[in-house]
Amino acid sequence: MIYDMGLQEYLYGVTFECPKEAADMPKVVRCILEGKNYSSVEIDKIFSASKAQGKSLYWVDDELLESISPDIVFTQDICEVCNIDTVCTETAVMKLSKQPTLVPLSPNNLQDVFECAITIAKAMGKEEVALKYLANLQKRTDNILDRLRANKAPLKRVMLMEWIEPIYNCGHWIPFQIAAAGGVDMLSNPAGDSIVTQWDKIVKYNPQVLVIAPCGFDVTRSIEEMNLLISKNGWNDLEAVKNNQVYIADFDMFTQPSIGTLVEGIESLACMSHPEIFKANESIIKKFVNYSTIEVLK
């Protein structure tokens, strides 16, 4: 979000999970899984074992953090799987010779994420930048809503998966993204954590639109694991499969909470749920694919 708002000149350190724009920045937080190509099943087992043992997969480069000597440190408590939490960050910060201001960012719903932009910019003394940033993004989401209303678009029954094996539903702000795109995900957990969801429950729900967007996976990486889904009993009976409305999407439009990428997620979901109304623009055209076209290419 700092990059989205053009405030990167104030940024001196990032985590291993930060987007490609920050690839050359010093990485203060590291993870033991960096550079590894584990499967969904393997990653789930590693994280589950780590949690059961009370261990963390992340660590702070104390020397690097000391050399940066930050004035502000932004932290998160949304997901202990995705990145280091505030408690671990506080422990590292306590060792510093100069104590920075800790600013926790823990949004639950979509509005919370919008407000995080103001929190970030305000901490840097640049609140007006956030207000302009949000106004421009609001125009894009308003345009989607206006077009849905103008076309009297029916509400689509959607499911978005945050993980493939085991299957996780979507939570936090993603159900609100789906709603903003003209859909509803009745298997989701709005403003709460995503949870393991049994396959028979998905079959009964029978989504009209199925979106596969595992956290941390881009389209190419997710395609490698689609066999875990298409081999399940009842896969070919799903309405989304019959009507060629199964999509694979980059995770950063959903579980990488910059408002800019989340708005791209809403625009993409609108194209997936209502292709008769919305067409992908240049910024999102490579961020999701219809699975039926992949099968044809094979």
UniProtKB/TrEMBL annotation:
Organism: Pedobacter mendelii
Domain Fe/B12 periplasmic-binding: 1-277
Lineage summary: Bacteria, Pseudomonadati, Bacteroidota, Sphingobacteriia, Sphingobacteriales
Signal peptide: none
Alphabetized InterPro entries for the sequence: ABC_transptr_periplasmic_BD (IPR002491), Vitamin_B12-ABC_binding (IPR051030)
Name under which the protein is recorded: Cobalamin-binding protein
